[in-house]
Amino acid sequence: MTPDSVYIFRFGKDDLNNRIIVRYGHGWTGRQKIKEIDLLLHKQRHPRIFKTEHGLLKYLESHLSSHEEKVDDLGLDK
Questions:
Q1: What is the band of 14 on the pLDDT scale with cuts at 50, 70, 90?
Q2: Structure confidence at residue 58 (pLDDT)
Q3: d(Cα 32, Cα 28) in Å, to the nearest integer?
Q4: What is the pTM of this model?
Q5: DSSP 8-state code for residue 43
Q6: By C-alpha distance, which of 34, 38, 37 is closest to 24?
């Protein structure tokens, strides 16, 4: 077996302080398997940790409607 690998994706407008950290490994067949996904948004001190992509997408979908309401209230374009 090989040691775990880490992929870091940084995004954002100003300081690029938003990030997703994906920890993954390889099985004996060579297939990649995600072990953990860490999501750090909006200067949070503690990242949200997900075991699967489904959990991450569910979290983001739940917060999408509240974010869209804030944008509409401020009158900002997306």
A1: confident
A2: 92
A3: 10
A4: 0.71
A5: T
A6: 34
Distance CA 19, CA 50 (A): 14
Cβ atoms of 5 and 19 within 8 Å: the answer is no
C-alpha distances (whole Å) from 12 to each of 15, 19, 20, 51 are 7, 8, 11, 24
The count of domains in the chain is 1
- Whole-number Cα distances in Å, 62 to 29, 40, 54, 59: 35, 16, 12, 5
* Residue length of the chain: 78
Q: What is the distance between the alpha carbons of residues 49 and 37, in angstroms, rounded to a whole number?
A: 6
* Domain ranges, residue 58: 5-74
From the CB of residue 30, how many other CB atoms can be counted at a distance below 10 Å? 7
Which tens digit of pLDDT belongs to each residue from 18-74? 899 999 988 888 888 889 999 998 778 888 999 999 999 998 888 888 777 777 777
